[in-house]
From TrEMBL:
One of its GO terms (cellular component) is plasma membrane. It comes from the Eukaryota. InterPro entries: RTA1. Residues 119-176 are annotated as: Disordered. It is a multi-pass membrane protein. It is found in: Membrane. This is Uncharacterized protein. The keyword Membrane applies. It comes from Thermothielavioides terrestris (strain ATCC 38088 / NRRL 8126). Residues 135-152 have a biased composition (Low complexity). PANTHER family: PROTEIN RTA1-RELATED, SPHINGOID LONG-CHAIN BASE TRANSPORTER RSB1.
């Protein structure tokens, strides 16, 4: 049997460079256990994630244009594109787990580039949600429904006339 863990992985031939920009190791020469991950990335899972992120990009493009959320849409599209590029690197590593450029592609795009876009996309949207929530009526006061659904009418035009103006509504000592 094997005496320690280093005996479990077979040694490469002496002329083989396993990892790095000058690596010449392939699946024909080296066992997959010597690769960076020690396994072969799943082709089915990575192509599925490429398709899902592509679908997500299409949906975010539609919703961003529909609701005019340009900042959110841009951040989400950059994050989806970075994730797609990262998963393409993992698909490349399926065919050759020793491919240094595929490893660098998936590490730089998938882990380092796409996550920063996600928190930035929410900051702008959350501030808009807060201002919208502040302008809504408190639950104890009712508003009348808009007389028409014409997009040219402003939000203030259909508010009940008995409500005080916006700043006075949220103070506790406003006269009624």
């Amino acid at each position: 049997m094997f005496s320690n863990a280093s005996d479990l992985v077979p040694k490469p031939p002496p002329y083989v460079v396993v990892f790095g920009p000058h690596a010449n190791c392939t699946l024909d020469i080296c066992p997959v256990e010597l690769s960076v991950y020690g396994y072969r990335p799943s082709l089915a899972a990575n192509t599925t994630f490429i398709a899902l992120y592509g679908l997500s990009a299409v949906i975010h493009t539609y919703l961003g244009i529909r609701w005019k959320q340009w900042w959110f849409m841009g951040c989400m599209l950059l994050a989806a594109a970075s994730a797609i590029i990262g998963y393409i690197g993992r698909v490349m590593m399926y065919y050759n787990p020793f491919n240094f450029s595929a490893f660098m592609l998936q590490i730089s795009q998938f882990l380092a580039t796409s996550p920063p876009y996600l928190p930035n996309s929410g900051t702008r949207t959350n501030t808009r949600d807060r201002t919208t929530a502040q302008s809504a009526s408190p639950p104890c006061q009712s508003t009348t429904a808009p007389p028409s659904t014409s997009p040219s009418r402003s939000r203030e035009s259909w508010r009940s006339p008995d409500l005080p103006p916006f700043p006075q509504r949220f103070t506790t000592h406003a006269k009624r």
